[in-house]
Design brief:
There is one protein chain. This protein is 42% helix and 14% strand. The chain has 106 residues and is α+β, with helices and mostly antiparallel strands. The termini are far apart.
Length: 106
């Protein structure tokens, strides 16, 4: 059975973890070595899902980054202004065009 920690008290093992993570609180991405990333991949993925950027280093040099997944939203491609103007001819009297659109049910 796990030992309960009193509310508001920080476990001893987490104190050193929190010190290393102080830069992340100020907007700098957290940097971890490849070995650490292998050992803690699940927790790093959870943190990335919450919006934290995590840099993976090898030999002290940044090699990769784990970031939150952002799905790509696909929609109808935007039309150029020229195409839009061509589809709406300007005439002195637009009554016929408006009646045609109204009668077609759009």
């Amino acid at each position: 059975m796990k030992k309960k920690i009193p509310e508001g008290e920080i476990p001893t093992g987490l104190k050193s973890w929190m010190v290393r993570e102080a830069p992340a609180a100020y907007g700098e991405p957290m940097a971890v070595s490849v070995r650490t990333a292998k050992d803690q991949l699940s927790s790093l993925l959870e943190r990335a899902a919450l919006g934290e950027d995590i840099v993976i280093t090898s030999d002290g040099k940044p090699k990769a980054m784990i970031v939150r997944y952002r799905p790509v939203i696909n929609g109808a491609p935007a039309r150029s202004m020229r195409e839009l103007r061509r589809s709406m001819p300007m005439t002195p009297d637009s009554t016929a065009m408006i009646r045609g659109q109204r009668d077609s049910g759009y």
